[in-house]
Protein backbone atom coordinates (compact mmCIF):
# COMPACT_ATOMS: atom_id res chain seq x y z
CA UNK A 1 0.00 0.00 0.00
CA UNK A 2 1.52 3.35 -1.00
CA UNK A 3 0.93 6.72 0.69
CA UNK A 4 -1.93 7.81 -1.57
CA UNK A 5 -3.76 4.50 -1.17
CA UNK A 6 -3.22 4.72 2.59
CA UNK A 7 -4.58 8.28 2.61
CA UNK A 8 -7.77 7.23 0.81
CA UNK A 9 -8.18 4.24 3.13
CA UNK A 10 -7.65 6.38 6.25
CA UNK A 11 -10.36 8.77 5.08
CA UNK A 12 -12.67 5.75 5.06
CA UNK A 13 -11.62 4.78 8.63
CA UNK A 14 -9.13 2.01 7.79
CA UNK A 15 -6.94 1.51 10.86
CA UNK A 16 -4.47 -0.72 9.01
CA UNK A 17 -3.80 2.11 6.54
CA UNK A 18 -3.27 4.42 9.48
CA UNK A 19 -0.65 1.99 10.84
CA UNK A 20 1.10 2.06 7.45
CA UNK A 21 1.43 5.86 7.64
CA UNK A 22 2.41 5.66 11.30
CA UNK A 23 5.20 3.18 10.56
CA UNK A 24 6.35 5.24 7.58
CA UNK A 25 6.55 8.63 9.30
CA UNK A 26 6.83 8.09 13.06
CA UNK A 27 10.63 7.85 13.32
CA UNK A 28 11.15 10.71 10.86
CA UNK A 29 8.79 12.98 12.78
CA UNK A 30 10.41 12.12 16.11
CA UNK A 31 13.85 12.96 14.67
CA UNK A 32 12.39 16.22 13.30
CA UNK A 33 10.97 17.14 16.71
CA UNK A 34 14.18 16.26 18.57
CA UNK A 35 15.87 19.05 16.61
CA UNK A 36 13.47 21.46 18.34
CA UNK A 37 12.97 19.91 21.77
CA UNK A 38 16.32 18.16 22.33
CA UNK A 39 14.26 15.64 24.28
CA UNK A 40 13.35 12.31 22.68
CA UNK A 41 10.53 11.43 25.08
CA UNK A 42 8.88 14.82 24.69
CA UNK A 43 9.29 14.53 20.91
CA UNK A 44 7.63 11.11 20.95
CA UNK A 45 4.71 12.51 22.92
CA UNK A 46 4.27 15.36 20.45
CA UNK A 47 4.42 13.02 17.43
CA UNK A 48 1.96 10.59 18.97
CA UNK A 49 -0.45 13.44 19.61
CA UNK A 50 0.04 14.59 16.01
CA UNK A 51 -1.00 11.15 14.76
CA UNK A 52 -4.06 11.25 17.01
CA UNK A 53 -4.91 14.65 15.51
CA UNK A 54 -4.43 13.20 12.02
CA UNK A 55 -6.86 10.37 12.76
CA UNK A 56 -9.41 12.74 14.31
CA UNK A 57 -9.23 15.04 11.28
CA UNK A 58 -8.91 12.29 8.64
CA UNK A 59 -11.69 13.81 6.52
CA UNK A 60 -9.40 16.82 5.84
CA UNK A 61 -6.85 14.64 4.04
CA UNK A 62 -6.56 15.19 0.26
CA UNK A 63 -6.86 11.97 -1.69
CA UNK A 64 -4.43 13.17 -4.34
CA UNK A 65 -1.73 14.53 -1.99
CA UNK A 66 0.82 12.86 0.21
CA UNK A 67 0.01 13.37 3.90
CA UNK A 68 3.69 14.12 4.60
CA UNK A 69 3.40 17.93 4.69
CA UNK A 70 0.16 17.73 6.64
CA UNK A 71 1.82 15.47 9.26
CA UNK A 72 4.86 17.74 9.59
CA UNK A 73 2.58 20.76 9.97
CA UNK A 74 0.44 19.07 12.63
CA UNK A 75 3.57 17.96 14.49
CA UNK A 76 5.11 21.43 14.42
CA UNK A 77 1.83 23.00 15.59
CA UNK A 78 1.68 20.48 18.44
CA UNK A 79 5.22 21.53 19.40
CA UNK A 80 4.21 25.22 19.44
CA UNK A 81 1.13 24.33 21.53
CA UNK A 82 3.36 22.49 24.02
CA UNK A 83 5.65 25.54 24.32
CA UNK A 84 2.68 27.82 24.97
CA UNK A 85 1.27 25.39 27.52
CA UNK A 86 4.66 25.23 29.27
CA UNK A 87 4.86 29.04 29.33
CA UNK A 88 1.38 29.33 30.86
CA UNK A 89 2.17 26.61 33.39
CA UNK A 90 5.48 28.25 34.36
CA UNK A 91 3.84 31.65 34.62
CA UNK A 92 1.12 30.24 36.88
CA UNK A 93 3.68 28.37 38.99
CA UNK A 94 5.78 31.53 39.31
CA UNK A 95 2.74 33.53 40.46
CA UNK A 96 1.83 30.86 43.03
CA UNK A 97 5.47 30.55 44.17
CA UNK A 98 5.88 34.33 44.56
CA UNK A 99 2.65 34.62 46.54
CA UNK A 100 3.65 31.74 48.80
CA UNK A 101 7.07 33.31 49.28
CA UNK A 102 5.59 36.72 50.16
CA UNK A 103 3.18 35.08 52.61
CA UNK A 104 6.02 33.10 54.14
CA UNK A 105 8.21 36.19 54.52
CA UNK A 106 5.39 38.09 56.22
CA UNK A 107 4.67 35.11 58.46
CA UNK A 108 8.36 34.61 59.29
CA UNK A 109 8.82 38.31 59.99
CA UNK A 110 5.88 38.31 62.42
CA UNK A 111 7.12 35.09 64.06
CA UNK A 112 10.63 36.45 64.36
CA UNK A 113 9.39 39.63 66.01
CA UNK A 114 7.31 37.61 68.48
CA UNK A 115 10.24 35.34 69.30
CA UNK A 116 12.65 38.25 69.76
CA UNK A 117 10.13 39.93 72.03
CA UNK A 118 9.77 36.69 73.99
CA UNK A 119 13.57 36.37 74.22
CA UNK A 120 13.85 39.92 75.56
CA UNK A 121 11.14 39.20 78.15
CA UNK A 122 12.95 36.06 79.31
CA UNK A 123 16.26 37.92 79.56
CA UNK A 124 14.60 40.70 81.60
CA UNK A 125 13.43 38.10 84.15
CA UNK A 126 16.95 36.73 84.70
CA UNK A 127 18.71 37.56 87.97
CA UNK A 128 20.86 40.71 87.55
CA UNK A 129 24.28 38.96 87.63
CA UNK A 130 23.02 36.25 85.26
CA UNK A 131 21.63 38.83 82.82
CA UNK A 132 24.82 40.89 83.01
CA UNK A 133 26.96 37.79 82.31
CA UNK A 134 24.77 36.81 79.34
CA UNK A 135 24.84 40.33 77.87
CA UNK A 136 28.61 40.60 78.28
CA UNK A 137 29.08 37.32 76.44
CA UNK A 138 26.39 37.55 73.73
CA UNK A 139 26.17 41.30 73.15
CA UNK A 140 29.70 42.47 73.90
CA UNK A 141 31.32 39.28 72.65
CA UNK A 142 33.51 38.82 75.70
CA UNK A 143 35.03 35.43 76.50
CA UNK A 144 34.29 33.72 79.80
CA UNK A 145 37.74 34.49 81.23
CA UNK A 146 37.33 38.20 80.31
CA UNK A 147 33.93 38.32 82.04
CA UNK A 148 35.42 36.60 85.09
CA UNK A 149 38.18 39.25 85.29
CA UNK A 150 35.76 42.17 84.91
CA UNK A 151 33.25 40.82 87.44
CA UNK A 152 35.92 39.57 89.84
CA UNK A 153 34.59 35.99 89.87
CA UNK A 154 35.88 32.60 88.77
CA UNK A 155 35.38 31.20 85.28
CA UNK A 156 33.25 28.47 86.91
CA UNK A 157 30.90 31.17 88.25
CA UNK A 158 30.59 32.66 84.76
CA UNK A 159 29.88 29.20 83.35
CA UNK A 160 27.26 28.66 86.06
CA UNK A 161 25.56 32.01 85.32
CA UNK A 162 25.50 31.21 81.58
CA UNK A 163 24.09 27.77 82.33
CA UNK A 164 21.28 29.32 84.39
CA UNK A 165 20.52 31.79 81.57
CA UNK A 166 20.42 29.06 78.93
CA UNK A 167 18.18 26.84 81.08
CA UNK A 168 15.67 29.69 81.55
CA UNK A 169 15.75 30.53 77.86
CA UNK A 170 15.34 26.87 76.93
CA UNK A 171 12.40 26.56 79.32
CA UNK A 172 10.81 29.70 77.86
CA UNK A 173 11.08 28.21 74.36
CA UNK A 174 10.19 24.61 75.26
CA UNK A 175 7.51 24.42 72.60
CA UNK A 176 9.61 26.27 70.04
CA UNK A 177 12.39 24.25 68.39
CA UNK A 178 14.11 27.39 67.13
CA UNK A 179 15.36 28.75 70.45
CA UNK A 180 19.00 27.96 69.61
CA UNK A 181 18.60 30.00 66.45
CA UNK A 182 17.54 32.93 68.58
CA UNK A 183 20.48 32.54 70.89
CA UNK A 184 22.69 33.20 67.87
CA UNK A 185 20.56 36.21 66.92
CA UNK A 186 20.60 37.52 70.45
CA UNK A 187 23.77 39.51 69.92
CA UNK A 188 22.34 41.28 66.87
CA UNK A 189 18.85 41.93 68.22
CA UNK A 190 19.79 43.29 71.64
CA UNK A 191 22.45 45.68 70.40
From TrEMBL:
Keyword annotations: Sigma factor, Transcription, Transcription regulation
Residues of the RNA polymerase sigma-70 region domain: 21-88
Gene3D superfamilies documented for this protein: 1.10.1740.10, Winged helix-like DNA-binding domain superfamily/Winged helix DNA-binding domain (1.10.10.10)
Source species, domain of life: Bacteria
The UniProt record lists the keyword Transcription regulation: yes
A Pfam family hit: Sigma70_r4_2
Database matches in InterPro entries: RNA_pol_sigma-70-like, RNA_pol_sigma-70_dom, RNA_pol_sigma70_bacteroid, RNA_pol_sigma70_r2, RNA_pol_sigma70_r4_t2, RNA_pol_sigma_r2, RNA_pol_sigma_r3/r4-like, WH-like_DNA-bd_sf
Stretches assigned to the RNA polymerase sigma factor 70 region 4 type domain: 120-169
Family from the record: Belongs to the sigma-70 factor family. ECF subfamily.
Protein's UniProt name: RNA polymerase sigma factor
Organism: Algibacter miyuki
